[in-house]
Each structure stands twice: as structure tokens, then as C-alpha cells.
Write a structure and sequence with these properties.
The chain is built from six helices and five strands. The protein has about 160 residues and is an alpha+beta fold. Helix 5 packs antiparallel against helix 6.
């Protein structure tokens, strides 16, 4: 038996079951005709959608309202579009590198604000270590010349050191 024979047997079985349920023969014939027409349309559509009929393909991020219009414009020029989401599950889950704290970073240019000016420096060592050295330097410089309150103000300035 071939697929064609199987299909014909199945059609006869369905026609017999529908006629037992009270359906007239013309409705069964119309359904058969609709199925044949649909299969012909599907074959024509497949032939139309072959790869050689379009100039290229573009993948663009989806933007509500804009992507549809953009797709229609490109379709009129025989260019196929595919939309991709902005945020994917992978973006939420995968983090290939751990974030490094500012104090642990090396090879930086930094600025330390002072009372009347600011100090800009460059270091190849850890930023946190260099800030501690600046703080120690300010403490040793101000130990004999300033009051305790002014030293506290100057040391709070060191805590505001920023990397550039």
C-alpha cells in the first residue's frame, strides 16, 4: 500500500462517517476541494519563499511600533527582517566576570580633592593602598601644625578620593 491508497481509504471512511451523521454529499466535496486549493496555495507560497527570492536578511532589536513598520519597508525592497529582544534570559543569568572593587583596581589615574586645590596622581598599585598612603601622609604632615578638628576634616577629604 502507498500513501495515496491510505489517503483515499481515509477520505472514504470520513465521508461515510459524515454521511451517517447527516451531512449532505456536496459539503464533503466542498471540503475536499478547499483542502486541495489550500495545498496548492501552500506549495506556491513555499516556492515564493525560497532563499533566492530575497536580497538579504537583517536582524534588528525589537522596538514596539517601530519594528513592524521597519519590517514592512524592508519587505517592499525584498529584504527579510528578524527581530530579537533587547533583554534575554542570558543577560540576567550570565555574568562572565566578577566586578572588581575600586580599592582593588590597579593602573589608575586618580584625583584627591584638598582644601584649596586637588591632587591628581597615577599609580600602578592598588587604589585602596595608595589612598591609605595619602591619608598617612596628610596625618603626618598635619600632626604638629594643625588641630585635631582640622586633621579630621582633611582625612575626610581623602575618603572622597575618586578614580578618573
Amino acid at each position: 500500500m502507498t500513501e495515496e491508497d491510505d489517503r483515499k481509504k481515509e477520505e472514504e471512511h470520513v465521508a461515510k462517517a459524515l454521511s451517517k451523521c447527516g451531512y449532505p454529499p456536496w459539503t464533503i466535496d466542498r471540503v475536499k476541494q478547499d483542502i486541495v486549493e489550500k495545498s496548492l496555495k501552500d506549495e506556491a507560497k513555499k516556492a515564493k519563499n525560497t532563499r533566492g527570492n530575497h536580497k538579504g536578511m537583517v536582524v534588528v532589536p525589537y522596538v514596539k511600533g517601530l519594528s513592524e513598520a521597519f519590517g514592512r519597508i524592508l519587505k517592499s525592497r525584498s529584504i527579510v527582517t528578524a527581530n530579537r529582544p533587547h533583554r534575554m534570559l542570558r543577560n540576567f543569568v550570565v555574568h562572565p566576570k566578577d566586578k572588581v572593587k575600586d580599592e582593588e583596581k590597579t593602573k589608575l589615574i586618580y584625583r584627591v580633592p584638598c582644601k584649596n586645590s586637588s591632587y591628581v596622581g597615577k599609580t600602578g598599585r592598588k587604589f585602596g593602598l595608595r589612598v591609605k598612603e595619602h591619608k598617612k601622609e596628610v596625618d603626618s604632615f598635619t600632626a604638629g601644625t594643625k588641630t585635631r578638628a582640622s586633621r579630621a576634616r582633611e582625612s575626610s577629604v581623602i575618603h572622597k578620593a575618586a578614580k578618573l
